[in-house]
Amino acid sequence: MTTWMRKVFVSEGATEYPPGPHLDRLRQKFQRGAAVVLCLDVSASMSADLPQAVRGSEKFLHEAVAGGYSVGLILWHSRVGASTELSRNPEAALNTLRRARVKGGTDLLPALREAARRLEGSEAEDRVIAVFGDGDLGVHAVMTERFAAHLRTQGIRIITMGLGHASATALSRIASETVNDEVMVASRETLVENISSMSRGLRRRKQG
Fold first, then answer.
1. Which InterPro entries does the record match to this protein (predicted)?
2. Which of 22, 47, 180, 205 is the most buried (most CB within 10 A)?
3. What single-letter DSSP state applies at residue 71?
4. Most confident listed range (85-94, 117-126, 176-185)
């Protein structure tokens, strides 16, 4: 069930055959779609938790595609380890996930910049960055917060989840929204379900 997705119903006015005055606007709107980039922490401290994190990320990507989103993936540590283009076909992201290996330290800024680059080139109506990590923002925390604030002014939404309350609180400093006014906390015992549940921050658009 995907009842966690918020539904947005918007009317652009009726058209008819032959095409009426609203047809071009409808085409543009429905072609714009929605896009989400999932940023998964693969730093060395994730070693024991990576298999579960990968499984949860796979479920997240499938849920996002089912909800009408193009998906992209970034594996991050102190740098961007790997990334994929936005696509309605999740296979490239899923294949990259399955090859994920832990490495390096923690610095979210390069991953956030890469996610922004992909989304800023998208015409998507709803643009989202979903971040999962087991630590904080990393060595450029202040710059990361400033850059996230800039992205929010551009209409890019940021949702975050951390492994444990300390991480969740640290990452939430860049979030544009929370769930029920609470930071999103994951635990090792329920990590697959926790990461998958980040998709509740997505909005499904009903067409027709």
1. VWF_A, vWFA_dom_sf
2. 205
3. E
4. 85-94
